[in-house]
Amino acid sequence: MNEVAYIDRPNRPLYFYAILYLAFLYIPVLFLPLFSFNDNIYIAFPLKGFTTQWYVTMFNDQPMWAALNNSLRVACVSSAIATLLGLFGAKAVTRYRIPGVKPIIFVIMLPMVVPLIIMGVALLILVTRLGFNLSLYTIAMAHVLISVPFAMATLMSRFEGFDPSMEEASSDLGAGPWSTFWRVTLPMVAPGVLASFLLCFTISFDEFIMAFFLGGTDPTLPIFIWGQLRFPQRLPGVLALGSLILVISFVLVFFSLWLRRLGVEDTKSGI
Amino acid sequence: MTNNDSFVSLVDVSKHFGSVVAVDHLSFTIDSGEFFSLLGPSGCGKTTVLRMLGGFESPTTGEIYVDSAPMSEVPPHHRPTNMVFQNYAIFPHLNVRANIAYGLRYDKIEKAEVTRRVEEALEMVKLPGFGERRSNELSGGQRQRVALARALIKRPKVLLLDEPLGALDKKLREEMQLELRALQESVGITFIFVTHDQEEALTLSTRIAVMARGKALQVASPKDLYNRPVSVEVADFIGQMNFVEAQVIDVRNGEAVLDTGGLGKITAPANSDFVHKDAAIIVAIRPEKLLLSAERWPESQAAVQGTLKTSAYLGDRNYFYVSVDGCEKPLAVAATEAEVSGEQPLDHESTVWLSWADNALILLPRD
User: Fold this and answer.
1) Are A147 and A82 within 8 A, CB to CB?
2) Interface check A269 vs B, CB under 8 A
3) Which tens digit of pLDDT belongs to each residue from B247-303?
4) Confidence label for B3 from pLDDT (cuts 50, 70 and 90)
5) Mean pLDDT, rounded, of chain A
6) Helix, strand, or coil here: A109?
7) Which residues in chain A have their CB less than 8 angstroms from residue B135's CB?
8) Nearby residues of B73 by Cβ (< 8 Å), 6 or more positions away
9) What is the pLDDT of residues B171-193, one digit of tens each?
10) A61 with A36, same domain?
């Protein structure tokens, strides 16, 4: 007799499939750090030798630092605004009796599925017709637009996970609407706010299409990297930069997922 | 202070949610210092009434007065009421001490006084030394105590309790019932208590409003509710009751002569207007007011013969179900262990006699 439960029995083809799938997913990405340490200007096998010179060139690349600076500024501003909008939006749709709330949520979530290229063209037409100059500001505005649905989704699940009677209890005890917001609502959704900020940040940070259409003379990092691809001798530096970004974004995403889970457990035990 | 007779009053209050009528032209008054219960099945509107008192819902029509002041324009944070929520709503990001002190900030009280009152409140709900705990480190009963302390420390005119004992197990619930009653008597605050548990309402309350379909069917003391229900619905909801259809043959000297199919021709005290000649009514009698015996009791008493169908043993008492010719349902008879033990055991399908005193009969209008 087989002692192992049916669901736990080993399945060789499935193991094989899983390994193949993971390889397909991650091997291309792993080439980045691999070649960033390779002592050869051309991206080709066989590997020549270990070097950190590409990292040194990268650190001395002033335009790259300028682009990184631009990207960080755009990402910080756009994710802060998107999270703030998401916070109020999520509170509104989860807490108040709003007629037609389903269509409203649908419309808010729509930018998630509209192709970015369409949105980019549309925004470009709008912005130039309105007479704005293309700049980091226009990129940031576009990034707010595309990250709000993600902020809403993150924060709505946070609001739905916490009992509205907490806010009622606060007002029952004498707190006005603002006081309730600061003393109960915000502390309870805080992990969601941070998770939303990090998510929007990563969306903005590696966004290309909007930055391409709506950017002025100051490039964001993705645009800068794309520009570098035309010069083969610059490529290893880009690989070094890419490897660094890879590590940082992995850390950020894991941190935000961890925050989200931490928050959920907190509210569950709190009820 | 004004008229003590109507400390809290609801005047023709209705609440509609879209097309649903949750509360339907409800009016009653509550005295100062009462332990008043709103009792009814889920969906009867009792929680909506409580939430309107707390200010979380506003009445569609009508007005609520607390201590003579109309409440409809007063937001929850300015009302002289405090609430113990069904799930207690203890703030999970604050410890017990901060939870209890939460509302005192708005009363402009000195820091030293806040500390003193929080300690006092912890003492009162028997949780001294729990100040630093978080809500996830408390049991259900302890959370309930924190919620009570947090509301009572505000010294409200009225304390609203939304099924606060519902989540506790039976033993703890009975313990908390006694404590709650003692607490209410010691603080002297008017309690308005929502429950669907009729036993709980009878145990705790000075008066009870029995609700159904957004209306108050009867507002009375537990004793009156049990002994003098005004309708079949109330009688059926509070405890167990036998119902028999009857026709009034005659009314004289406060006595009604009734023709009931199963119980034959009987007499009962006629205490209401609807009991008049030729009226179709319902006769109700509690299971414990019926006496079961193998032989017929002395002639003077009203009695009827029946067949014992089944019995149920409940520890402190027995229920016997006796079918009587002409009665739709078998009649339930309750007897305590002591009452039964003297008799020789009765077999099922054996012929038995049921007897009762005329004043144990309750006459109710037919719906």
Assistant:
1) yes
2) yes
3) 888 888 888 888 887 787 888 888 777 877 788 888 889 998 888 877 777 765 788
4) very low
5) 85
6) helix
7) 269-270
8) none
9) 888 888 888 888 898 888 999 99
10) no
Question: Cα distance from B65 to chain A (closest Cα, Å)?
Answer: 17
DSSP of A160-214, one letter per residue?
HTS-THHHHHHHHTT--HHHHIIIIIHHHHHHHHHHHHHHHHHHHHT--HHHHHH
Please enumerate in sequence order all residues whose Cβ is within 8 A of that of A38, keeping only pairs 6 or more positions apart, or say none: A47, A48, A49, A50, A51, A236
| Eight-state DSSP code of residue B190 | E
Place of tokens 């736990």: A8
- Asked whether residue A212 carries a pLDDT value surpassing 60, the answer given is yes
In a domain, A198, yes or no: yes
Same fold, B4-236 and B240-365: no
% of chain A residues with pLDDT over 90: 37
One-letter amino acid for residue B35 of the chain: F
Looking at the domain assignment, is residue A249 inside a domain?
yes
Q: Is A184 at the interface with chain B, CB within 8 A?
A: yes
Tally the domains of chain A. Answer: 2
Q: Do A173 and B154 touch (CB under 8 A)?
A: yes
Note whether B102 contacts A183, CB cutoff 8 Å.
Answer: yes
Q: What letter represents residue B278's amino acid? A: D
In chain B, alpha helices (H): 46-54, 96-101, 111-124, 140-152, 170-187, 198-204, 222-227, 232-237, 337-341
Tell me which residue has tokens 């709650």.
Answer: B180
For domain B4-236, the CATH superfamily is P-loop containing nucleotide triphosphate hydrolases (3.40.50.300)
A42 in the same domain as A65:
no
| Domain B240-365, CATH | 2.40.50.100
Q: Give CA–CA dist A229/A237, Å, rounded.
A: 10
The enclosing domain of A174 has a CATH number of 1.10.3720.10
In sign, the C-alpha dihedral spanning A169, A172, A175, A178 is positive
pTM metric for this prediction: 0.79
The reply to whether residue B77 touches residue A169, judged by beta carbons under 8 angstroms, is no
**A227 located within any domain:** yes
> Are residues A129 and A31 part of one domain?
no
